[in-house]
Design a protein that fits this description.
31% of the residues lie in helices and 26% in strands. By secondary structure, the protein is α/β, with parallel strands linked by helices. The protein has 3 domains: 163 residues, FAD/NAD(P)-binding domain (3-Layer(bba) Sandwich); 112 residues, FAD/NAD(P)-binding domain, CATH 3.50.50.60; 106 residues, Enolase-like, domain 1 (2-Layer Sandwich). Helix 3 packs antiparallel against helix 4 and helix 3 packs across helix 7. It is globular, with a radius of gyration of 24 Å. The N and C termini lie far apart (69 Å). GO terms for molecular function: oxidoreductase activity.
């Protein structure tokens, strides 16, 4: 049994855990990080990065197809997968080297709490390291969930890991779930040559977005050839002759070479020793706005905690977490930037991009969500194709922008952009929402011509300014 004493130990070396450790270490604290899998975590190898590497080429081809005078041809699937591997090959040596260069100790193995401020790491060779620390940060991420479907455990169903690390594209694919993973993979695989059938229990896709955004996304998927089944569930699945057949609750059947289960995730907190400190395993850790879970020593960030399950929001929490740990080590009072509640970002201004075609980029409330919170709101929309930048971006540009305005304070509390190449437009909206910029002031933020950002001017005009 080896022993290690550090200021901060982080369980989980994904981007969120890395940020927490690095933030604390840069300010003078010693830090160690524990990882049982690949350094870089889910996002680097199985989620954000490889999925976008698969989506970018097919998205670009669609954009070229909408531009007369530009040559277009079939997607070279082998080269798409080869480029994906350049970003997300299952080799973490460069990320491990980064930790070493940053002065952060990497402990490869499974970390478990054994009591207050104590973590035991079990390495692959069976040896253990006992770590004591002033602060312990849980950044273990999340794992896929499987719905209770007869036969689901026996068919070799894919998770996002299989879908993003695939070596060959199947001729057909069943997808269970119409959330972000489901619709992004439906977009990628249909355009890479698979016949995709998507089964969604709810009455529309990606239910957290504006209804019109979901409608246009569904129309686009169906125009591509995706068989979208809404308001239905799988009751049983079986594999025979190499294919998976799913029975739906209306008695019909659908078949595909593979089945991707994209029906949700749960915190990866089942086997990290939470019971030794009085917490329930398998649940999200109840961190407060300073990311603190217990007293002044246990913290949680990212998917293991409460709040938005997005890499950028987890990294935001991690920066706050590192600063809080340092402030407490120095005996400083917490406040201001030491709390994500102070900026409202975690509560009402979470930005997100869904990299389908059309892209959906949104921040803050939808109109329905704002009304459910009791806010006095009015929303206005404008077709992006009706501004010069949109019409120049693509022939027949199909997309729109919506802002949700608090009519008492005259500030934007939500915004949605739908269409080709809108992903980067959401940050301006995020600044407006987080900064609570009055519309009277926003009116003087003049958009460049001819860009799609001119839609901001049209939205404010439509509102009545």
């Amino acid at each position: 049994m080896a022993d290690l004493d550090v200021d901060v130990v982080v369980i989980g070396a994904g981007p969120v855990g890395e940020n927490a450790a690095d933030r604390a270490h840069q300010q003078g604290l010693s830090a160690a990080i524990v990882e049982a899998g690949l350094v870089g975590g889910e996002c680097s190898y199985y989620a954000c990065i490889p999925s976008k590497a698969l989506l970018r080429p097919v998205d670009l081809k669609a954009a070229v197809d909408r531009m007369p005078g530009v040559a277009s041809g079939p997607v070279d699937v082998a080269k798409v997968l080869e480029r994906r591997d350049q970003f997300a090959a299952e080799d973490d040596s460069s990320q491990a080297d980064w930790l070493s260069g940053a002065g952060i100790t990497l402990l490869r193995g499974r970390g478990r709490l054994t009591g207050e401020r104590a973590v035991e790491v079990t390495h692959d060779d069976g040896t253990t390291t006992s770590v004591t620390a002033r602060a312990v940060v849980v950044a273990t991420g999340s794992v896929p969930t499987y719905p209770p479907i007869d036969g689901i455990a026996d068919v070799g169903a894919w998770t996002n890991r299989d879908a993003t690390q695939v070596k060959d594209v199947p001729s057909s694919l069943l997808i269970l779930g119409g959330g972000v993973v489901g619709v992004e993979m439906a977009t990628a695989y249909q355009r890479l040559g698979a016949q995709v059938t998507l089964v969604q229990h709810g009455e529309r896709l990606v239910p957290g977005v504006e209804p019109e955004a979901a409608r246009r996304l569904q129309a686009s998927l169906e125009a591509d050839g995706v068989d979208v089944r809404l308001g239905t569930s799988m009751t049983a699945v079986r594999r025979s002759d190499g294919a998976v057949t799913a029975t739906l609750d209306d008695g019909s059947e659908v078949t595909g070479d593979e089945l991707l289960v994209a029906a949700g995730r749960k915190p990866a907190t089942s086997d990290i020793g939470l019971e030794t400190v009085g917490l329930e395993p398998g649940k999200p850790l109840p961190a407060d706005d300073t990311t603190t879970v217990l007293a002044d020593w246990l913290y949680a960030v990212g998917d293991a905690s409460t709040g938005a399950k997005l890499t950028h929001m987890g990294k935001y929490q991690a920066r706050i977490c590192g600063d809080v740990i340092v402030a407490r080590a120095r005996g400083q009072q917490l406040g201001g930037r030491y709390s994500h509640h102070a900026t409202t970002a975690e509560h009402t201004a979470v930005p997100q991009v869904i990299f389908t075609d059309p892209q959906i980029a949104a921040v803050g409330y939808t109109e329905d969500a704002a009304r459910a919170e009791g806010l006095p709101v009015r929303s206005v929309s404008y077709e992006i194709g009706n501004v010069a930048g949109g019409s120049l971006q693509a022939d027949g540009y199909d997309g729109f922008a919506t802002i949700v305005v608090d009519t008492e304070r005259e500030v934007i509390v939500g915004a949605t952009f739908v269409g080709q190449d809108v992903a980067d437009m959401v940050h301006a909206a995020t600044i407006a929402v987080v900064g609570e910029v009055p519309l009277s002031r926003l009116w003087h933020a003049v958009p460049s011509f001819p860009t799609m950002s001119e839609v901001w001017l049209r939205l404010l005009e439509t509102y009545g300014l």
